[in-house]
Amino acid sequence: MTEPTLTPQQQAIATLKANLHLPNGGFHTLIVELARKYLLPFQAVRKVLKQSQKAIEKKIKHQFDDVSNFDLTLENWLNLIHISLKEQAKGNLPLMEILQQSQLYQDAIQTLSQPINDQAQRETAREQLAMTYEIEVYKPLTEMLYTSILYWKLPDDLYQMTPAKQQEFEGYPQHMEAVRHLLVLSEKNNFK
Q1: Could you tell me the superkingdom of the organism this chain comes from (predicted)?
Q2: pTM of the predicted model, to two decimals?
């Protein structure tokens, strides 16, 4: 029995897929790294990776005469990905700016600006800071870390973000800056 011969287009797609193969979970690792670099959710980055591959495959299928050897390279694929992710990330604001604009944060600051006379008021302020962390820091960070090892290590409770725990997430400096800021506010609340 003879093996079927591939058409030039099929051969080009096979070459592309071989060039894009990232061993040892490399595809997942690449997504996590790009999510961190561009501060975008894992799923958004994953979608761009797939779309970039499909764009090259579409060119192979519909414009085969215009396909160059470079089009089939990992470098070209990564270039397409970076161009798309840069465009998506253009509107990203610094996390501290997002945090300070959030209603949860503003409510916490309002509570903290008042004289705190009893434990109930102190608890209200702590809860507001914890909710701010959960919505403005924890949730976006879990969207970036989706299924990575760090995803499972990230506490959903602000007050579990010890210095040692923060160290584990040093690759996410904006998020850890926000955590430290919220913890400082909470500490000030304890001494009023």
Answers
A1: Bacteria
A2: 0.86
